[in-house]
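Revision sheet: C-alpha cells.
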Amino acid sequence: MPRSGTRGGIAARAIRRRSFARRHHRDDLDPAGKRCTTFVNAPAGAGRSHHPTDLAHVPRRLRRPIRRARENPMSQTFDVVDVHAHILLPGVMGTCGHAGPEMGVRPDGTQFFRAGDYVLENVKFVDSPFSDARKRVEHMDQLGIHQQLVSPNPITFFYHQPASEAIRFNQRTNDEIAEICRHHPRLVGAAGLPMQQPDAACAELHRAVTQLGLKSSYIGSDVNGVPLSDPRWNDLWAEHETLGVPLVVHPEPRTVSRGPDPIFGPWDMDIIFGFAIDEALAVAHLLFGGVLDRHPGLHVHVAHGGGFAPFQKGRLEAALERRPWGKGLLQRSFDEQWAQLSFDTAVHRTDAREVPRQDQFARSFARGCRKNPRGQRPTDLCHRSRLVTLLSEVAAARRRRRTR
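Predicted:
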C-alpha cells in the first residue's frame, strides 16, 4: 500500500523534525574535561558551533526556533546529539533479492522508495540528506546538530526475507554505514542485524563493532511476530554485554511484513499508534521475559519515547507485585532493570514528554544533570545512557584530535 510523504512516517521526520524542550539537558564534564551538555534528540537550531549565520537555505518554518535557540545563552554550552536519524544507502539498492530495496523517480517527477511490497511515495530520497551524507552534514549544520547516530531504515529490516539474503543485505548496509562514518566523523553508525537467524546476527554484531567500528545495534521490536524475550536471542544479548554496546529498538511498520491489516492499515495507524504499542510491548517482554534481569550489562534504548511504556510504568510494576505470576519472576529489582532502559524524545509535543521526564528525568533524557528543571535533585539511580555516553566519548576524542 503506497504511503504519502506528506504524512511523514519513518522517512520524513528522520532528519527534519527534531524538537526537544531545552530544559532537558545535562551539564557535566566530558571525557576531555570540557563542560558540555548532551541532548537526546535535539531541538532544531540548538547547537554550539556548527550552525551558519545565514538562514536563507533553512526551511522557513525552522528559522524562528533556530534564532530563538541561538539567542539562548545555554546554546553555547552543549553538544547536540541526535540518536534518531535513519539513512538510505544508494549502494545497497537491489541487494536483497526481489525485495529490493529500490528508490527512484517516476515519469511524473514524484519520487518513491520500495522495500518488498511496501512503497513510500512523494518523499524526497534521491539527492537529499537521506541518501547523500554530504547534504546530511550540511543539514546538521543548519539545525545545529553536533553529532548524529545514523541507523538503517526500519522498513529495510527484511526479517521476512530469506536469511541468506538478509545476511548479505545487512553486511552490505553496515559496510556502507561504516564507510560514510569514516568520511564524515560527526556521523556514528548503528548496525542492522539479520535477526531471523540468531547465530548470524551474533556474528554480524561482532564484525560490525570490532571490524567496522559501529557503536550499537539497531533492531525491530519483534521479529516476524516473535518477541525479544524468546530464548533464541540469549546469545545475542550476551554478545552486546561482552562488546559493551547498546541495543536500539525501533519497530518496523506492521504492514511491511504482515501484509494488509484492517486495524493498523488505514490512516497509517501502524506508524501513528502501532509504533508506540510495539515499543511498549518490547519493553514489557524485555522486563517480564527476564532479558534485562539475566543481562545486567545490557542497555536498551527505545525509540519514540519508549512508546506507551513510560506512561504505564506503574502498571508494569504493579503487575509484578500483585499478579500471581509476578511473585519471584525476577531476581533483580524492577528499578534496577528499568534503569537499563533509555528513551529518545521523538514524541512530537512538549506535554507528551512530561510523564517520562518526571519519572526518569536524568536516566532517560538528561543523564547526569545535577538538578532537574524544577530544582529537584535527581534520584540516586540517575546515570548516563550508555548510548549517549558512547557518542559523547567519540565526539570528545575527535575534538582532541582536531586540537593537536
